[in-house]
Amino acid sequence: MTTSLVEWQENEFNEALKQENLCVVEFSAPWCNACKITEPAVVEVAGNLPEAKFAKVDVSKNPGLASRMGVMSLPNILIIVKGQVKEQIIGAANKSKIDEKVRKYI
User: Fold this and answer.
1) Out of 5, 24, 25, 35, which one is annotated catalytic?
2) Which of 6, 23, 78, 85 has its CA 20 to 30 A from that of 100?
3) Distances (CA, A) of 73 to 3, 65, 84, 101, 105
4) Under a CB-based contact definition with an 8 Å cutoff, are residues 66 and 59 in contact?
5) Is the model's pLDDT at 105 over the cut of 60?
6) Burial of 65 by CB count in 10 Å (0-12 exposed, 13-18 middle, 19+ buried)?
7) Active-site residue among 24, 32, 45, 65?
8) C-alpha dihedral (23, 69, 84, 22), degrees to nearest 10
9) Cis peptide before 75, with omega less than 30 degrees from 0?
10) 23 tagged catalytic
11) For residue range 16-43, what is the model confidence (pLDDT) as tens digits?
């Protein structure tokens, strides 16, 4: 089971979108309390859904990527299918909500 999310920089994000069918990316920041609450739920879902590639992007380190993807609030989870954003979960989310939204694309 996954114990943490791999952190992507902009180049890894771009490559994953080209190569992966389904990506779940949590945009967050170390100072974001809601992100600290949500990340364990994302990690747990990631451990149960090997069909999807899960990662996180620190908006403090990648502000251009966050802007490009339209991320204006944190946490912000993007469900990306074949390079296109299909779902967005804004704000703190629990495991069941994340799991339900991701499973629609598996």
Assistant:
1) 35
2) 6
3) 25, 14, 19, 19, 24
4) yes
5) yes
6) buried
7) 32
8) 0
9) yes
10) no
11) 999 999 999 999 999 999 999 999 999 9
- In the residue annotation, 32 being an active-site residue is answered as yes
CATH superfamily of the 6-103 domain: Glutaredoxin (3.40.30.10)
CA distances from 20 to 45, 47, 102 (A): 18, 17, 14
Q: What's the confidence (pLDDT) of residue 81? A: 97
Q: Is the pLDDT reported for residue 4 higher than 60?
A: yes
Q: Quick one: tokens of 79?
A: 């469900």
The domain spans of the chain are 6-103
Tell me the per-residue pLDDT of 43-87, one tens digit each, with 9 for 90 and over.
999 999 999 999 999 999 999 999 999 999 999 999 999 999 999
pLDDT at 2: 52
